[in-house]
Amino acid sequence: xxxxxxxxxxxxxxxxxxxxxxxxxxxxxxxxxxxxxxxxxxxxxxxxxxxxxxxxxxxxxxxxxxxxxxxxxxxxxxxxxxxxxxxxxxxxxxxxxxxxxxxxxxxxxxxxxxxxxxxxxxxxxxxxxxxxxxxxxxxxxxxxxxxx
Length: 148
Hints:
Blueprint (H helix, E strand, L loop, with lengths): L1 H5 L2 H39 L2 H24 L5 H24 L4 E11 L2 E12 L4 E9 L4
Antiparallel strand pairs: 1-2, 2-3
């Protein structure tokens, strides 16, 4: 009977099992937390509307460039007529873009201010405002218009 009381090899086996199970629980908690952190950071990156903003920016720069180039080539218009035609054309473009993005639930405001050099439009400063309820974006861009 004394031999049974002195035999403690089972206690070491039981203690080792408890230590390993506690270590595995701690490891699983760390793994779970890291996957949640990775998901939340990926979710915040995916919710940023970079494609919408990039599309608006590129198309607006191109549109201002083309409108300014067209007005600079038009020799029938005087300086004030070129400015008025540029503003009317850009305002029509801005109105169309605003309506398109309103259907997606976004607020977009585009404004262009042309600058004159002699009798031609030398550049246009574009103001872009975008808001989708989560992200607000504002940028000023100056587009150089080719002199013809």
